[in-house]
Amino acid sequence: MGPKSPALAERGSLATGANVTLSHLKEELARKDEELKAVKDALAEQQQNLQFVISELRRNKEHLAESQRLGRMGSVGVDVSTKRVYWSDEAARIYGYPPGTEPTPELILQRSHPDDVDRLRIVLEQAVLGGRDFDWEHRLLMPDGSIKYLHDVARCVKDQAGREEIVGAIMDITPHKRAEEAVLRSEAYLAEAQRLSRTGSFGWNVATGELVWSAETFRILGYNLELKPSLDLVFERVHPEDRALVKRVLDDAAGGVSDLDFEHRLLLPNRAVKYLHVLATLTKTETGTLQFVGAVTDITERKQTAEALRASQHLARGQLDALVDTLAVLAREPKPIKFLEHVYHIICEQLGAVGLVGWETSSHAGGIKQIASYESDRLHLPTQEEMQVGNAPGASEGHPVWKELWANPEACAYSRITVNPLGAQIALLPDGAWHDSLHALAGNPVMERRLERRAAAGIRGTLIVPSVIGGKVNGCYFISFNQHRQFRQEELGLTRAMVHLATLAHQLYRLLEQSREAAVVSERNRLARDIHDTLAQGFTGVIMQLEAAKDAMQREEWSVVNEHVGRAEMQARASLGDARRSVVALRPHSVREGQFRNALKDLMRRLADGSRVQATFLVEGEERQLTQEWEDNLLRIAQEALNNTLKYANARTFRATLKYLLDRIEFHLVDDGQGFDISEPHDGFGLVGMRERVNGMNGRFGLQSAPGQGTEIRVMLDLRSS
Fold first, then answer.
1. Which of 258-267, 345-354, 448-457 has the lowest mean pLDDT?
2. Which of 103, 120, 331, 565 has the fewest CB atoms within 10 Å, i.e. the most exposed one?
3. Rounded alpha-carbon distances, angstroms, from residue 454 to 66, 315, 357, 361
4. DSSP label at 238?
5. Which of the four CATH numbers 3.20.20.220, 3.30.565.10, 3.40.50.2300, 3.40.50.720 does domain 596-722 have?
6. Which residues does residue 378 pair with via DSSP β-bridges, in sequence order?
């Protein structure tokens, strides 16, 4: 072949170059495809990784949210530059808002407890300023009224650009706070229970000697809570007389022999003595060492109560002896005034009193009078001035204490007296409300003057005990002391019994005095009857005989005059004899023993002699011995009846009949005179005296008379009462 043309050659060269370039382009394209594929694979892998990361982030977020929910903890943050607040859903729920709620300071403050609002506002203001960390607790007041306790923790952080952000956590610690409050409340209840029961708890590690005391144990032993408990402190308080006992018991216990159960005493720095009961159980710690867990109880009050009971029993025995002694005095003391004095003395002696005064209500409404007093170991009866009836204290003004005293037989009152200025206060209980009593006493001059004298004599305290008769208060007794003092209930009970005995003693004294006065009056009446029936009737007979002699003298019948004068002399001598017997014996016995019939006959003969009245005496039935009193009374009744017949009846006959029946006697005195109207009043002592004599013999007195029909007197006596 011939050579090619240049154009053809150039075209071939160009084709060859193009092929080469195309080949290179294909190779480059293939390479780029490979790279693109690699990139796509890488992107696919990155997308897969991103999806995994996103999934992990979502899962972590869910875990975080669940963890926050379970842990009651929400997250919170503040962008200092924008002042924007953000929080987690759990934080929103803690504040009581729906998840997703955009937080603002207003929403946060809206939930804050009123007492914590100001503090929270300051915290929020400081948070938006940045640069500070926070760690504090506060409360929320929820719409339903419940309270939540929150613990907020936050830190101020900066990113790479230097922007500040507050990042923190909100923790709902309400359950923890409730549990803490429950524990504190339980501890407070336990402490109060220990205080009320005077029982402290303790623990004792035998190996280490370590002691743990409750607050009440510190108080019982008299130590401050700051001290560290030790056995040395225990023995420092143990009573010297009980230290050997306590040491021996603890030494035995350290050997692990038995539990603790014993009593001992403490001697405190103020010299006060306490009684303790120690009770503990032996246990083992986790390491196997011995320890005692138990209680120590202050039994001082129980011991004192037991001692007081023994003292009360002793007091009761003493008071019983006093009552027995008083009754013995009543049995042997003939004078009631001495018995009353002895009772007052016993009351003062038993109570350690310096005196007492008895007061008694009077028939006058609201009145009271003094009945007796005991001072300087002597009984004093009131003077006429002291016996004046005055106003009972507090009766008209409704005084709260005096009103109760006058109404309640079981009430007692305490009174205390002050001087300079003079004052008196009264209370139902020594530790109760005290009321002024000076104004109440001022209404009674006798009481007011006595108060002044008692205050001047050094009396400072008084126990007022009502006196009771028939279940009702009829007065009161003021028992005085040199100082104000208190009484136990058993002392008050025994004092009431002694006051009741004093009331009975005074009533007995009064009854005996009334009986004595009645006896005096009765004796006076008897003497009046005797004088009337002996001297007066005798003088009447003398006068009648002398008048008859005077008439005979006018007629110059001298023999008749001598007879009447002789009879008058005999009557005068008989009356003189009766008068002498009345003076000597104060009980005239006109009838000698066994001569009652003769005495009646002689009496009627002497009285009727020289008169125109024919007097006769009859006895019917079997005669029996009568008492001297009955014979004297029947004789005087016959004498009075016959004298009345002689003086007033203008009768011709007078008949006295004494009938002895089976169970009684009847004495009939009858005349045939002019009689009288028994319904009209009559002067004279005759009929009254006869009635009194019959009543004194427990008999019946009968009288029958009418004008022109004579008079009959009947006396009926029951022999069974003779």
1. 448-457
2. 331
3. 88, 28, 11, 22
4. B
5. 3.30.565.10
6. 375
Look-up: residue for tokens 């394209």? 29
pLDDT of 684 > 50? The answer is yes
**Annotation: CATH topology of 333-487:** Beta-Lactamase (3.30.450)
3-state SS, residue 58: helix
Q: Could you tell me what percentage of the chain is helix, strand and coil, using 3-state DSSP and rounding each to the nearest 5?
A: 50, 25, 25
Q: Which of 108, 110, 111 is nearest to 123 (CA)?
A: 108
**How many other C-beta atoms lie within 10 A of the C-beta of residue 260?**
18
Match 């008048």 to its residue by tokens.
547
Quick one: tokens of 719? 């022999």
- CA 582 to centroid of chain Cα atoms: 63
**What is the token pair recorded at 517?**
């006065």
pLDDT at 583 over 60: no
β-strand partners of 468: 473
- State how far the Cα of 657 lies from the Cα of 615, in Å rounded to an integer: 11
Q: Stretch 510-517: mean pLDDT, rounded?
A: 72
Closest CA to 475 of 399, 400, 393: 393
Question: Could you tell me which of 372, 315, 356 has the C-alpha nearest to residue 487?
Answer: 315
pTM equals 0.41
Distance between alpha carbon 584 and the CA centroid of its chain, in Å? 63
Would strands 390-391 and 367-375 be described as parallel, antiparallel, or unpaired? Answer: antiparallel
Tokens 């007629």 correspond to: 555
Q: Residue 665 carries which DSSP code?
A: E
Inter-CA distances, 233 with 205, 236, 365, Å: 16, 5, 69
Q: HSE of 295 in the Cβ direction (CA atoms, 13 Å)?
A: 12
Q: What is the pLDDT of residue 356?
A: 92
Fold match between 68-172 and 596-722? Answer: no
Task: Tell me the sheet residues that pair with 477.
Answer: 358, 465
First to last CA, the chain: 212
Side chain identity at residue 706, one-letter code: A
User: Two tokens at 718?
Assistant: 């029951």
Question: Hey, what are 705's tokens?
Answer: 């008379």
Per-residue pLDDT band for 71 (boundaries 50, 70, 90) equals: low
pLDDT at position 4 is: 55
Largest CA distance in the chain: 256
Q: Is 202 strand, coil or helix? A: strand
Q: For 609, which DSSP code?
A: T
Q: pLDDT at position 585, please? A: 38
Fold annotation for 189-298: Beta-Lactamase (3.30.450)
Let me know: does 663 contact 720? Beta carbons within 8 Å: yes
Q: Which residues are registered as beta bridge partners of 195?
A: none
